[in-house]
Structures are given as structure tokens and as C-alpha cells.
Design brief:
By secondary structure, this protein is α+β, with helices and mostly antiparallel strands. It contains five helices and four strands; from the N terminus they run βαββαβααα. It is globular and about 55 Å long.
């Protein structure tokens, strides 16, 4: 009997509502573990996760049975509840609407994993807006400015 064989790798990026820097360095690791658990429980493979106080990146190996928008919605909804229940943030925590999703070939995985792992160093030289606009340009994604994240300039 023939099987289904796939190789789908997606980097997902989303931001804190209002681009507030609410993700604390003292609890971000717990958040990343929690999100990794959601991804695993949805039968997907977490390859890398990291972020900054105002946004996160994660790379998954995705099965074709997964609906990406459903997965991201679940990650955002559940992690939002987790952060608020644990009272990690002094103010109410919310993720901003929308997300970016960028696909990669197997040959690019090491570079993407390193890129995600080095977020703190990377953002010493480049803002989130610069980074995100580069993704949209590199992947030839058409967009309207009014539908992008709320930027803090």
C-alpha cells in the first residue's frame, strides 16, 4: 500500500499586541516549552523556538494533515491563557492578530534554526520591523501596510 511522504518546514512569527515588550527573560523559557508542548500535542514537530520581548519565532516540521491557521490560533489562544493564568505579565497579555509563515527546504534548516536561536544577537542590529519586511520581500509576499503588525518606530 502506498504511503504519504512529505517534507514541510514552516517558520512562524507573531507579535505581542501593541508590540509591547511583555515577554520577560525570566519566564520566556517556560513559555517556549509550553508552546512546544502545544505543537507536539498537535502531532507536529518543533525544531526551534526563540524570540524577543515583543515577538517570537518558531520553526516546525509540519504534517500535511495540519491546518496551519488552526495550529497558530491554538498556540496563540492557549499560550495567551497560560501567560495570564501564571501572571507572568504585570498587565493583561495578548498576542496581536495575524502572523507570518515562511516555508523552507530541508537544506535551509540549519541556517533557520541558527537564525531563530540567535534572535537576541540578531536584534541588536536590526529592528523587528526591518526583519519582518525583509521576510516579506525575500518570500515575494504582497502586502498592504495597514494589514501588517502595529509598529513602534
Amino acid at each position: 500500500m502506498p504511503g504519504t511522504f512529505t517534507q514541510i518546514y514552516i517558520q512562524i512569527v507573531f507579535a505581542v499586541k501593541g508590540r509591547k515588550s511583555l515577554i520577560g527573560s525570566h519566564w520566556e523559557e517556560e513559555l517556549f516549552k509550553y508552546i512546544s508542548g502545544i505543537v507536539r500535542n498537535k502531532d507536529q514537530k518543533m525544531l526551534s523556538i526563540n524570540g524577543m520581548p515583543d515577538h517570537i519565532h518558531f520553526l516546525i516540521g509540519m504534517k500535511p494533515t495540519c491546518c496551519l491557521s488552526d495550529l497558530v490560533r491554538e498556540v496563540k489562544k492557549s499560550s495567551n491563557g497560560f501567560i495570564n493564568e501564571k501572571r507572568f505579565s504585570k498587565s493583561k497579555f495578548e498576542w496581536q492578530g495575524g502572523y507570518g509563515a515562511f516555508s523552507y527546504s530541508h537544506s535551509n534548516l540549519d541556517a533557520v534554526i541558527c537564525y531563530i536561536r540567535d534572535q537576541k544577537r540578531h536584534h541588536q542590529k536590526k529592528t523587528f520591523k526591518e526583519e519582518y519586511m525583509e521576510f516579506l520581500t525575500k518570500f515575494n509576499i504582497e502586502f498592504k501596510d495597514e494589514y501588517l503588525f502595529e509598529w513602534i518606530d
